[in-house]
């Protein structure tokens, strides 16, 4: 059957709910791309650079790490609070790097800003792993209970900036594995742009991975009160070890990582939950990343990963019943739990990445009576991005600052409180509460922030700060979206 006929058959096989909603005009993906990267500047911690574009943000947390005798300034606040959680920060950095690796040719003038976003993350991760030679990795700065008890600007922070670490006696293979993956992925990004920095990243990734593999255990067990229920590792640490090995193999081409992956595929449960991907669960990402090797005809010993990746693709197709992947009436990927957009952007990224790998190999994925062509997968990913940008039953964009209607009262301290320029005086821990409960829009527009979005299957959205699962933006929602928007800005 001709490729076009395959595509036609496949599209006709999907329900109408995933066909594009009618819009007056196409989306400005280039504008959305610019804003999606700009969001990361609003999440910066530490000393802000002279070229900082979101001017309502100022320096914050300059003395992070001082209580432990180290410099842990910099990095990103993961969401609307003022904690630096290492696990989601590392995942966001990995996904920013993957976005650049796969889609840099589509980024145009935004490539430089994307590179800065990656480096802001890796510069911090290098600080956090500087004592790896002594078997120590710093994985969090800030006491979450102290922080969540206050509503204050990061510039005013007077909450506990407790430093949390993992070591040989208190392992954290999950957070260490993700950190190694981030460093390895970024080493590819900077390989030709800054060879010495790239080498530093790769060497550090190797050392951190060795530590993670040698001292196996979940950081949730070692640091339970500090990380649970916020970023508790529910899925286990095994997937992060495989994920890190996959990125180290891609970055170094060393045989030892290929052998590690093959040897540990069953032990580390590569085939588990094939349609989950996010800061906690890497399985779908592992399978898609490794499958590129198989599709290029270079690695038949990874064939089982491609089988898993094909299974992931089939499980996401609308009309194929699967309890793990559902769609709202308006066509949004829906998974139980909070911050649903994290699933939407991460899974859509994988759909797009895999569609490109299939295209280059001239392959399709058979899914029963439906054939998943590269064109169909791009269509599905684009439908999710378009929903985020406004093609949904509410007719609103879930990206702050994009479109005529978008969330005004996002659950974000810095955005919801007056800026230092507008209100130079200190705003204390409880003094910020009146801004939290205010019905007024946030005074500072956090351009590009994508909120958690609808978390039920009715496509409804309460634009209210207290509904944090719906109204809070996160770095790990935006990071995969950068790659998606780059591709669609260049091809649509």
TrEMBL record:
InterPro entries named in the record: 6-hairpin_glycosidase_sf, 6hp_glycosidase-like_sf, Glyco_hydro_9, Glyco_hydro_9_Asp/Glu_AS, Glyco_hydro_9_His_AS
Chain coiled-coil ranges: none
Entries under Gene3D superfamilies matching the protein: 1.50.10.10
GO molecular function term, any single one: cellulase activity
Name this polypeptide is given: Endoglucanase
List of catalytic residues: 411, 463, 472
The protein's enzyme class: hydrolase
UniProt similarity note: Belongs to the glycosyl hydrolase 9 (cellulase E) family.
Enzyme Commission designation: 3.2.1.4
Ranges for domain Glycoside hydrolase family: 29-485
Signal peptide: 1-26
Catalytic activity: Endohydrolysis of (1->4)-beta-D-glucosidic linkages in cellulose, lichenin and cereal beta-D-glucans
A biological-process GO annotation: cellulose catabolic process
Assigned keywords, A-Z: Carbohydrate metabolism, Cellulose degradation, Glycosidase, Hydrolase, Polysaccharide degradation, Signal
Origin: domain of life: Eukaryota
């Amino acid at each position: 059957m001709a490729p076009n006929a395959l595509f036609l058959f496949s599209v006709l096989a999907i329900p109408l709910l995933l066909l594009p909603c009618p819009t007056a005009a196409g989306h400005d993906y280039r504008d959305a791309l610019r804003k999606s990267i700009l969001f990361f500047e609003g999440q910066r911690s530490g000393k802000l650079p002279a070229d900082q574009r979101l001017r309502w943000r100022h320096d914050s947390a300059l003395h992070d790490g001082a209580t432990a005798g180290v410099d842990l300034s910099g990095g990103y606040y993961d969401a609307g609070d003022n904690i630096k959680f290492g696990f989601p920060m590392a995942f966001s950095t990995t996904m920013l790097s993957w976005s650049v690796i796969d889609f840099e040719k589509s980024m145009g003038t935004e490539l430089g800003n994307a590179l800065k976003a990656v480096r802001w993350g890796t510069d911090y991760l290098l600080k956090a792993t500087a004592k790896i030679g002594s078997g120590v990795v710093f994985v969090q700065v800030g006491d979450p209970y102290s922080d969540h008890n206050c509503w204050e600007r990061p510039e005013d922070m007077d909450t506990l900036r407790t430093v949390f670490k993992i070591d040989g006696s208190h392992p954290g293979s999950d957070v260490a594995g993700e950190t190694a993956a981030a460093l390895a992925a970024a080493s590819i990004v900077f390989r030709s742009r800054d060879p010495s920095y790239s080498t530093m990243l790769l060497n550090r990734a190797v050392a951190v991975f060795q530590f993670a593999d040698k001292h196996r255990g979940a950081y949730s067990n070692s640091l339970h009160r500090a990380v649970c229920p916020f970023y508790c590792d529910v899925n286990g640490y095994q997937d992060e070890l495989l994920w890190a090995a996959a990125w180290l193999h891609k970055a170094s081409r060393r045989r030892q990582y290929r052998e590690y992956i093959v040897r540990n595929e069953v032990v580390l449960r590569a085939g588990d939950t094939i349609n989950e991907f996010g800061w906690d669960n890497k399985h779908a990402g592992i399978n898609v990343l490794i499958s590129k090797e198989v599709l290029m005809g270079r690695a038949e010993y990874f064939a089982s990963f491609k089988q898993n990746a094909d299974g992931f693709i089939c499980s996401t197709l609308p009309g194929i019943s699967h309890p793990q992947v559902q769609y709202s009436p308006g066509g949004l990927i829906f998974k139980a739990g909070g911050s649903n957009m994290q699933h939407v952007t991460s899974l859509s990224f994988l759909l797009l990445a895999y569609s490109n790998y299939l295209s280059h190999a001239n392959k399709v994925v058979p899914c029963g009576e439906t054939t998943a062509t590269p064109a169909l997968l791009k269509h599905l990913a684009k439908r999710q991005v378009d929903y985020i940008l406004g093609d949904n039953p509410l007719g609103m964009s879930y990206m702050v600052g994009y479109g005529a209607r978008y969330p005004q009262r996002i659950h974000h301290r810095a955005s919801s409180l007056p800026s230092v320029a507008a209100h130079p005086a200190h705003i204390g821990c409880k003094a910020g509460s009146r801004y939290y409960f205010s019905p007024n829009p946030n005074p500072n527009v956090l351009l590009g922030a994508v909120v958690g979005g609808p978390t039920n299957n009715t496509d409804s959205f309460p634009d209210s700060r207290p509904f944090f699962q719906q109204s809070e933006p996160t770095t790990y929602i935006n990071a995969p979206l950068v790659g998606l928007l780059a591709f669609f800005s260049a091809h649509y």
